Amino acid sequence: MKYSISRISAELGIDRVSCPDYEVSLLLTDSRSLIYPSESLFFALRTSNNDGHRYIEELYGKGVRNFVVERVPDSLKDAADVNFLVVDDVKSALQTIACRHRDRFDVPVIGITGSRGKTTIKEWLYQLLQSDFRIVRSPRSFNSQIGVPLSVWEMNDDIDLGIFEAGISMPGEMQSLQRMIKPTIGILTNVGGEHAEGFESMLEKCREKAGLFVDCDRLIYCDDDPLVKKVMDEEFGDKERCAWSFKDSGCRLYVKHVEKGDGSTVIDYVYDNRSNSVTIPFTADSDIENAIHCIAVMSLLGVSDEVIAERMSRLTPVGTRLNVMEGVNNCMLICDAYTSDYHSLNPALAFMGRRMTADRTSTVILSDVMHEDMNSDALYRSIAELLQNRHIDRVIGIGPEISRHASCFGGDAKFYRSTDEFLSETTTSDFDHELVLIKGAGDFRFDRIVDILEARQHETVLEVNLDAVVHNFNNFRAQVRPATGIVAMVKASGYGAGSYELAKTLQSQGAAYLAVAVLDEGVDLRKAGITMPIMVLNPRVVNYKSLFNYRLEPEIYSFDILNEIICEGRRYSITDYPVHIKLDTGMHRLGFLESDMTELVRVLKSQNVIKPRSVFSHLAAADCPELDDYTRGQFEYFARCCEQLQGAFDYHILRHILNSTGITRFPEYQYDMVRLGICLYGIPTLTDGSQGDLKPVSSMHTAIISIKEWEAGTTIGYSCKGVLHRKSRIATIPIGYADGLDRHLGNGRMSVWINGHRCPTVGNICMDICMIDVTDASCAVGDQVEIFGNNISVMEIADVLGTIPYEVLTSVSSRVKRVYYRE
Ligand SMILES: *Cc1c(COP(=O)(O)O)cnc(C)c1O
Fold first, then answer.
1. Which of 455, 473, 505 is the last residue of a domain?
2. Distance, CA 679 to ligand 1 centroid (Å)?
3. What is the number of the ligand 1 atom nearest to the C-alpha of 685?
4. Residues 261 and 361 placed together within one structural domain of the fold
5. Among 445, 451, 481, 555, which residue's beta carbon has the most beta carbons within 10 A?
6. For atom 8 of ligand 1, which residue has the closest CA?
7. CATH code where residue 24 lies
């Protein structure tokens, strides 16, 4: 839904600045999530270790024009095309806007709180009710002070039911969540977690949680927990309540009998004096409780008993969300800061096991573990055993309960009574080359641990924008006929961007084929789970066994290779193996010539090991208009050869000849497929704009690590090459030619982008470091530096070096961390 800035200013009670009255539809709290700059309203939130104000200039550079801030950055004070809504507290402004938005809708809203099960119940209710309602629900586990406003913002005129979670960790937090969610139906899952931080007692904690329900007219909770019952009776005696119980047949929903079987559980219950029985495909106690909450909701909403039974039987598990991210000091983090129960621990350890590599040891950071049916001694003993069986090298337990059971774990395990205690005694240098599983219940706020251990942007990284890949792919899909397939070229590790993440994205976007350069790239993609067809362009295959095993389809470009693959295929009893016939129509590099065709057909027809899947060729000069006659000659030559080959077979052999430039300049030769390379990565090859709006996929960033001021005449760096002609501020950045920053870019031959300024290099580029003249930029240590990206184009760097963008992209060294982002 769109809001004008004047309306938002009014809602925030601030005078509108005399700037254009833009319309916005997206709330942005993380600069990395930017997709639609002009529609985004950015909230410069301050957290314990970051400040959104730092990203304003960068976002402005990317086209964002609307900001909610606590102070306006100096560099944009005079900008006329931007709105700064200045408030005292950005977070509460965000919440106010969410409240106003919520107030516009008069639909039932289910609010879920409690210590465990919130996300599962929310997702299950969605599964169960989506055929009756148009539902909006919290994305993932967006249940915090920041997550809830973003969730509520998803409400729009098309929906007729909202389902939102509310999670708190400190006294006083529920009130603001209640105002934003304003549920009409409340669910309290349970209240656990012993003495959680900040709360005086369990009763206090329970009361705080129940604060979500002040405006509800109907409530659902388990009557068997005396604490919950007490709070509900005292505070909400006047509301319609659907209490459920395993024990009390007087409850509105009485669970009469639960029978666990092999992989499923039968639940017999009585609701409003009607008996019913459902079978759910789960057996864990927590899942049974979650299911009963769902039964209560559906009964309350008037869903018939038969339908309830039918839908409950088809529930599917809600995957425990494990985020994987790069950590400090070459660590890799696997994080779940929401759940810590015995049943989700083993799957998380298995997930971790699949990501173990030889260069990392394993570490588990675990909070107190929720337990249903085990006494805590037995529980922690079996957890210790689990960790030992999984060969976890280092165990860190956080919480009073797990600390009390320290003796179950080996002598090397460390324990802390609270997350605060852990954080105060730990620095990032305590972690090095480790795969770290961080798993804790929401109350423990392990997201703060994740914040500390997550790799910070002070390193040199190649940021890869997967949304831009999708955008560029669709841009080209619109340029080719619907029936034409797109072969996505991910050779050279995705033109330097890293092939796996790209392949995964392109697979889901419906690319027809992936093309890699060498066998190993293809094998890696298969091992990582890429299932779509892959062609291997490499001139030499040495390991046919791998080729066949991983169903990688080779390019056949000579009689030698042809005979070799037939011979190897026979050894493995292969038949009809798909291959791609390469024709040399003018590159004069590799491929069959027209004069080879008769013999080629003869050999192909004389065997059944391989079967041509496609025939293709490559243009030598698609981007040189002065050589178009040559290119047209290639097309004619290609057509003749294709005809001869196709004539010998009674099934259709796919044909393809166009690369990126060819697609735009010679659309009449699309044939069955086109091969999209450099333009997929957002680099145009034509300067006339005919390739449409391409977005750069890769951007290389680093950060300033030092700034010094020098008098005129000082020399900077090796061989005293950089002579200063004025008093200057010189910044040092941690990137050098070993990272792929070509040494010919030194001594002012290129500029980097810092806070909206182009700043030239000074002196020679060193192996790991270079120096930048920042006299004209306002900047500080830690500020981001763009080497190339949205402001400094790869083309510009290629021009300085007298090369092409392909070489610049593929020269970024492998030691530069690739960071992928989306959404
Ligand atoms: C690399 C390559 C392409 C893609 O070329 P771009 O100019 O990057 O689009 C197409 N076909 C073959 C055979 C290639 O090797």
1. 455
2. 10
3. 7
4. no
5. 445
6. 677
7. 3.40.1390.10
3-state secondary structure 404-418: HCHHHCCCCCEEECC
Token digits of residue 92? 């509460």
Q: Are residues 176 and 241 in the same domain?
A: yes
Task: Write down the pLDDT at residue 319.
Answer: 55
What is the CATH number for 716?
2.40.37.10
β-bridge mates for residue 41, sequence order? 27, 66
| Residue of 472, 475, 476, 489 to test ligand 1 pocket, by largest number of atoms within 8 Å of CB | 489
- CA 381 to CA 371: how far, in whole Å? 13
Strand 361-367 relative to strand 434-439: parallel, antiparallel, unpaired?
A: parallel
Between these two residues, 130 and 551, which has the higher pLDDT value?
551
**Is there a single domain that holds both residue 722 and residue 792?**
yes
Distance 4 CA to ligand 1 centre (A): 45
* Mean pLDDT value of segment 254-280: 93
341 secondary structure, DSSP code: B
Q: Ligand 1 mean position to 515 CA, how many Å?
A: 9
213-259 pLDDT, tens digit each: 999 999 999 999 998 999 999 999 889 999 999 999 999 999 999 99
- Helix 90-103 and helix 174-181, axial crossing angle in degrees, nearest 10: 30
Residue corresponding to tokens 């590790």: 493
In a domain, 690, yes or no: no
Do 516 and 437 lie in a common domain? no
User: Which numbered atom of ligand 1 lies nearest the CA of 487?
Assistant: 10
For the Cβ of 232 lying below 6 angstroms from any atom of ligand 1, the answer is no
- Binding-site positions for substrate read 589, 767
33 has a pLDDT exceeding 70 = no
> Is 675 a pocket residue for ligand 1 (Cβ < 6 Å)?
yes
Question: Tokens 């002598």 — which residue?
Answer: 411
572 annotated active-site: no
- Looking at the predicted structure, is the pLDDT value of residue 372 above 60? no
CA distances to 10, 11, 104, 282 from 7, in Å: 5, 6, 14, 49
- Which of 281, 312, 343 is the endpoint of a domain? 312
Residue 687 within a domain = no
The finding on whether 659 has its CB within 6 A of some atom of ligand 1 is yes
Instruction: Show Cβ contacts of residue 389 under 8 Å, excluding neighbours closer than 6 positions.
Output: none
CATH code of 660's domain: 3.20.20.10
> 83 - beta bridge partners?
66
Judge whether 777 lies within some domain.
yes
Lowest-confidence range among 265-269, 351-355, 633-637, 718-722? Answer: 351-355
Point out the catalytic residue in the list 491, 495, 671, 820: 491
User: Same structural domain for residues 662 and 526?
Assistant: yes
> In angstroms, rounded to a whole number, what is the distance separating the alpha carbons of residues 731 and 774?
6
Does residue 692 fall inside a structural domain? no
Question: Where are the alpha helices (H) located in 528-676, listed in sequence order?
Answer: 544-549, 559-571, 597-605, 628-647, 660-665
pLDDT attached to residue 195? 47
Is position 491 annotated as part of the catalytic site?
yes
Domain of 393, CATH number, reads: 3.90.190.20
Range of the domain at 237: 105-312
Residues 400 and 542 in one domain: no
Q: Which of 36, 572, 630, 718 is catalytic?
A: 718
Which of 480, 518, 587, 618 gets mutated to test ligand 1 (max ligand atoms within 8 A of its CB)?
Answer: 618
The verdict on 346 and 260 lying in the same domain is no
Q: Which residues are annotated as a binding site?
A: 589, 767
Q: Are 254 and 326 contained in the same domain?
A: no
Is the pLDDT assigned to residue 387 strictly greater than 50? yes
Q: 319 versus 711: which is more confidently predicted?
A: 711
Over the chain, what is the mean pLDDT? 90
The total domain count for the chain is: 5
